[in-house]
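Appendix B. One record, verbatim.
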Amino acid sequence: MLDRFSRLNERISNNPINKVLVVLLRLVVGGTFIFSGFVKCVDPMGSVYKFHDYIAALGLQNLAGSEVVLAFAIPVLELVLGVMIVTGCLRYGSLFAAMAFMGVMLPLTYFLAKTNAVPDCGCFGDAIKLTNWQTFWKNVALTVAILYLLFHNKSVPSLYGPAIQWIVMLLTFILGLSIAYMSYSTQPLIDFRPFKVGSKIGTPLSAVTENDFLYIYEKDGVKKEFTVDSIPDEEDGWEFVDRKKLTPDLSPAQKAELASFSIYDEGADVTEEVIDSTSNQMLVLMPDFQRVNKAYAFALNDLTKACKERDAQLCVITPALHAEVEQWIDLTSPNYPIYGGDDSEIKMLARGNPAVVYVEHGTIAWKRTLSSLKTDRLMKENVPLAQLSDDFSPQKTLWALLSPYFLLMIALLFLNRIYPVVNFIVKKVKAMRNKPNDKYNLEEIENPANQE
């Protein structure tokens, strides 16, 4: 039985149609891994938020705090596996690693499809949104394709020889890690979210009503959420704490179309007052208020002073509770206002904790993490606010990382082909040189009397 299966497998592998199918499956499987890894490498902070949701939904509290490591490791792994599969490097090793990866993702996505514990798996970041069932069946198709390649991948040679395949893997690893690091420390090198640089911000595109919010009240140390129709009576001991916007299960572009970025002051919408289209604003976003380093307080006070000197207003926007804001005020004595905002909108607007968004006449001019912003240029060089982020261009940074990678990969491919070509030429030259000698020796054997 096993022998018959081996003969059938060998017959299929030698079929020309199989070779075409192997190449196509390499491109599909590897391309999917490359795309999945790349779109997450350019926005690792988005993966951090997604892994936080996974850990909370699955109750894996022992993994809490490892979100950043996972946000770097998994996209880079996907990128490396994708390139190795497409190029045919480590024809079995890369596929066994991909199968092990799918061995984790397949049951996980099935669980998510059945329970909807996390509405969006985030497998393609913010670039493409799939439902959980679409993600599961996509993973089923990938698993079947990987299984087929495991049996027949050897029928098509690799683009690179065995001696340099490790260099291909190393270059891809360095590329993925570099893209992820630059995106994490500054801003995503490709922004798939709706609030891109150059887009308008502030004015809602559709009316927001009281029914679009949940109201948080506290009594005896217990917080509860209420709709506008079920708000409790404060005379019964309930105290208003905060409110949060109900976010529909839509794509980022649809969410931006329904309601733009909103800012609140003690529950009241003050977006139009804060973001004035006739002036400029510096928005400092703090999605995770408790983890913001208190040392940033000095930089924010200096930044506020510089903004006032340039006729701009600086404010902090955070989804933090009122008590947390009061604690920050007591510790840092800020000279800037602090407003409330929806957690998902803040994370969608810019990545970082804190992140800085400069709005010029209602239009987003640039976005950066505060840690990457050289604020001392405002004092030393008297740089205008609009030019404060000129030292960083997402597109140029991405091409600066991709260009040497592609050049090195092409150079490796060229060098890899030099040896067999040179070896072929050397053998031909040797054969041509030895041909007359062989003829002479043959004549001597046939006519031994001539030797006398």
